[in-house]
Amino acid sequence: MLKITNLSATVGEAAEAKGILNGLTLDVPAGEVHAIMGPNGAGKSTLSYVLTGRNGYDVTGGSATLNGEDILAMDPETRAAKGMFLSFQYPVEIPGVPVMTFVRTAINAQRKARGEDEMSAPDFIKRSREVGKTLNLNAEMLKRPVNVGFSGGEKKRLEIYQMMMLEPKFLILDETDSGLDIDALKTVADGVNAMRDPSRGMLVITHYQRLLDYIKPDKVHVLAKGRIIKTGGPDLALRLEKEGYDGVLGEAA
Amino acid sequence: MDCCGGTTEHDEDCGEVQVKDSIDAKTVDAAKALESENYSAGFSTTIETDFAPKGLSEETIRYISAAKNEPEWLLEWRLKAYERWLTMEEPTWAMVRYPKIDYQAYYYYAAPKAGAKYASIDDVPKEILETYEKLGIPLREAEVLLGVEGAVETAAEAREKPRVAVDAVFDSVSVATTFRAELKKAGVIFMSISEAVHEYPDLVKKYLGSVVPQSDNFFATLNSAVFSDGTFVYIPKGVRCPMELSTYFRMNAENTGQFERTLIIADEAAHVSYLEGCTAPVRDENQLHAAVVELVALDDAEIKYSTVQNWWPGDEDGNGGIFNFVTKRGDCRGDRSKISWTQVETGSAVTWKYPSCILRGDDSVGEFYSIAVTNGRQQADTGTKMIHLGKRTKSRIISKGISAGRSNNTYRGLVSVNRKADKARNFTQCDSLLIGQNCGAHTIPYVENRRADAQLEHEATTTKLSDDQLFYARQRGIPEEDAVALLVNGFVRDVLQHLPMEFAVEAQSLLKVSLEGSVG
Q: What is the dihedral of CA A242, A244, A246, A250, to 10 degrees?
């Protein structure tokens, strides 16, 4: 599925570029959920942006492939059509563009890129209603402009709504738990768990262990100074919670 | 007042006209082959043309008047305007910069040689009909009636289709007006103003210059002296015009100014919706367009005037393009009358235009909905004036300015409340969107209020089309150009919904092509 080998990347203009990823290697097979934990500034968000192709991040070495295809050379929209999806830590407001218009445009753009037929309006509405229901998003909310006037929790639920509508092959959840109360966290986790599938891979980036109580990872990786320095099972997350990054990192170093 | 500007590394090309689906692909390709960059209305038509002597003089005016076989009073009206114009100075207060215009370097009248007016549409030179066809403007009534692909449609279906009557102005003269017979049955007069001068002299005499006086401003006065053609509409008492009326302006001849004059009168309780579209071929020289539009709404009448302006904006270095200096004004002369302006401005090198409403009648309403897009090196200084004279008059202004490339986009508006305008109300909202770092957006609202009980609201915002928004949309799979279009359409949404349906769709596509290459 997603294979990252020795990936290095910098952020910023050439003169003052900072190295954020330094030889990161990671392999997430189809059907597995991997968590990435790490202290602030470890490169967690950078990893998600480099994988999805955001401007301003330059890959200086290494590779990343999705099902054997080099994704780093692709436009963000091409990566999306290939199945990469990022649930943003800070979802962006798009005034004047209703959620349903936005998502339907996205679905059909992806389908077009893959040479598939467009999704019909009735099919779309039906699917939207089902997904909305599981996430407690009412029809009124889906007619409002994307993220405009949404609470923190609503924005995160809307990310999951988009994910479920787009049915991506590989999901990256960037700090999806931040700003969520416990009920919203549960709703979001239910949505993510419903997406678990033998053909799908997931990377869950988080600062805290809390989310992993609800989305059980197959593996936990610790990211520090731009590379994976420790990998373990779900118990590693619990240890990090108890001993802190310093304790675990001290041991690794 | 708020002002802001910024800078990007990019400097982009400008738009392309959306050719309607109904035109076959071959025509589109033919048009495309002629275009410069990606402005697809940029072709010119080869047709023999009669010109007035180059430059502006009393002689030119006499030539125009004689060519149109005008009555003496109109010649005198023109000459009076010309005398006045000689004493006037070109205004410099607008936030636009352009080389000094040599008014003697233009032709003030250009007419297709075959004769100014054609008895039937079959007599219109083939080249002109083809020009309009390339632009997607069907002139043949049958085509309009059936929609162009119409061969398979039944007559019944055709009758239910919304129809648009078209007056086509090619350079200085009106070449074809459709659906006249049917409109006449409803009592609606829809014809070129040159014909109206002969057929309805009393109406023309009564209303011409009554909203925009001859001496109003430099460009309006110039227009009064040399106006060539334009559209005349009269909707009689109590009549709701049975179809949308529309004029399509095309500037073809080189070094030619287009000076059209439109006069629309809605008598008591009459309703009309009027659309105006404009394009021009690509020329290295600047072409001059100085139009005057006058609207008169009597008691309980309503006029809705929509414009989609896509004159050639010049190339990416700012060479060529249309200078668009237009005076548009509506007079809500009667009580409870309403005038609504909706404009989508994407073309022209320089735009100087303020469609305004004089709210003279008690309880009259004025509206202005505007989308102005500038890209490349375009400059636009546009807005409106709402002059509240009558009691309980209301006005509403929604302006959306979009600047990209190295362009400058200024909203300039006046809300004036006279001391007799009891309880006047205005709501103004001016939003600016910046795409890139090198463009500028400026908002200059003027308010003159003589009433303590007036309610005036003003909101202004300036936002940047952010990399965050673009990346968010692209991450969801929406290609960059489509993402820009989607975001921009979101920004202008509350104006687009005021355009007639078919126009709104066209305007959306136009926005997209106008902003092509504005990011990246």
A: 30
What one-letter code names the amino acid at B197? V
Burial of B429: CB neighbours in 10 Å, binned 0-12, 13-18, 19+: middle
pLDDT of residue B155: 34
For the stretch B71-122, pLDDT in tens is 999 999 999 999 999 999 988 888 888 888 888 888 787 765 544 445 555 6
**pLDDT bracket for residue B169 (50, 70, 90):** low
CB atoms within 10 A of CB A49: 22
The tokens describing B248, both together, are 């399509």
ipTM of the complex: 0.96
Smallest CA–CA distance from A165 into chain B, residue: B476
Distance CA A66, CA B506 (A): 40
Closest residue in B to A110 (Cα) is B477
With contact defined as beta carbons under 8 Å apart, do A58 and A111 qualify?
A: no
| A113: nearest CB among B468, B477, B492 | B477
Domain of A187?
Answer: 2-252
Give the domain CATH number at A136.
3.40.50.300
Query: In chain A, count of helices (H) and strands (E)?
Result: 9, 12
- Nearest residue of chain A to residue B497 (CA atoms): A96
Partners of B373 in the β-ladder: B402
Whether residue B354 is predicted with pLDDT greater than 50 in this model: the reply is yes
Q: Do B490 and A166 touch (CB under 8 A)?
A: no
Q: State the pLDDT at residue B13.
A: 31
Provide the domain count of chain A: 1
Burial class (CB in 10 A: 0-12, 13-18, 19+), B501: exposed
Look up the pTM and report it: 0.78
pLDDT for A14 beyond 90? no
* Per-domain boundaries in chain B: 2-463
Question: Which residues in chain B touch residue A174, judged by CB atoms under 8 angstroms apart?
Answer: none
